Task: structure prediction
Amino acid sequence: MFRIRFHGRGGQGMKTASRILGTAFFIEGYEVQDAPRYGAERRGAPIFAYVRADKVAVNERGIISHPDLVVVSDDTLVGMPAAGVMQGIDQNTVLLINSHETADTWQQRLNTQAKIIILPAQEEIEDRAELPYIGSQCAAAAAALSHVISKQTFTQALTEELQHLGDEVVKQNLAVASTAFDAMAPHSGIVKESALPSATDYIKPEWIELPFEKAEISAPAIHSGATSVKVRTGLWRTMRPVINYEKCSGCWWICSTYCPDGAINVTDDKLPDIDYDHCKGCLVCVAQCPPHAIESIPEHIAKEKELAGAKS
Ligand code: SF4
Ligand code: SF4
Result:
């Protein structure tokens, strides 16, 4: 069975990528399962989708925990634990990253035994949630790496899945997908089907005995991960709101009320102060600020400015 996971940000088309790839496998005679996984979140948030394909009925369910191929459309997600890109990766996994950096750089950075392949990134754009055509590119690259989907079949699958968007959109997506498919030719067949898990290979977990604790110590889940304070949703941001205090008229009740995440605090001086650990970059505040005192800048540029400031 092929087990393939796509990771990206909401808006980049990873759900569509898994659908296109699933359809391509189906046309080639495979039984297919494909599903996206995301919460009630916004564009820019980490999401993933997965595809299982086999020549016999697919009875396995749930998230793919041991993938044969992991495709990452946005390399800023690789090091983000909440995105789960590295989950279940081992020496048999192929990791395909859309990046400006080389496979060697990633191999050293991640210190992984997985085989790393780079899908050359396009020009940098302002809002990464809008990387154009990246879903089609990722699906095409995954198809080529599997070596069981022909280019003709992939073209048919993409056309079927995107035809509701019009001929011009299909044409543009086919053009970039074709380039990505051809770029993967040297690695064609590197992704292998893995065997079905067997009960005879089951390795028991190493149990950790925890001491018994009173409920007031062990129960307050609000202090654990995956709660609103502990999860730094600011990592999802692709655009950063920045307040220009020279223009700000101090009507803090407006921006702090409109912020859906309560990420605008009010200082003792009655001025708004954005909590960047939890601001998801929805830019509602930018739209609502009456004197237009909040501007939005791409997150990667804001980070570069921070680094330059720290060095000087
Ligand atoms: S809404 Fe705009 S002007 Fe008013 S406090 Fe917020 S940032 Fe300042
Ligand atoms: S962009 Fe503005 S409104 Fe949106 S989460 Fe950040 S501070 Fe709140």
